[in-house]
Amino acid sequence: MTSNIAESLNAVTKDARELPIFDLFEYMRTLLERWTKEKLSKAKGTFTYLGHKYNKELEDNSTLSQKLRVRASTDHIHTVLDGVKRYIVCLENKKCSCGQFQLDELPCAHALAALRHRNETYENYCSPYYTRKSLLLTYEMPVNPLPDEGKWDVSQHILDEVVKPPTGDKRQPWRPHKERYKTFDEIKSKKYKVSCGNCGGEEHNKRTCKNAPKKK
User: Fold this and answer.
1) For 13-64, what is each residue's pLDDT tens digit?
2) 9: helix, strand or coil
3) For the chain, what is the radius of gyration of the CA atoms?
């Protein structure tokens, strides 16, 4: 649904992309091998119903839910009051008017307040993909090591195939673009803002400051 995994791989393989194709694939294979092992070890070291990341998020929501007041309308529909704000929680459909419950597929603070009002636990209201069991199943398939090239069993018709260099337009004289093309919003928003050493204002520096005290 998103390009996050592609961007993650692009970032860590930036230098490896200069290697020959076989070395590049081997680099990526060993990278995925290490990642899978680390994720599996982390899942095995988790002893809560949810994975560490989602359990921490649930704990944060639980802390926020302590100050909320709940008024039941039906067995599944509750009105949750947060100061002057009002939220409608439907536990049957796993929805909250704040939108977070159905978006994250994890009980928000309002849903947890409604569950506490009903003396019910959260397990049936979390996505099964967040559970420790699902994490173990996700990383149970290993990325197998690759044997030495002399041990490969390659079919003869593959060995006989002649791979010709790519054809196409002449390579441009400038260096290939390595960084991904950023969106307009990313370009527009400055990561580092210029601030003045004299007055502390932004968008100008000490040299161009108009608020600097005049020399006598």
Assistant:
1) 888 888 888 899 999 899 989 999 999 999 999 899 999 999 999 999 999 9
2) helix
3) 28
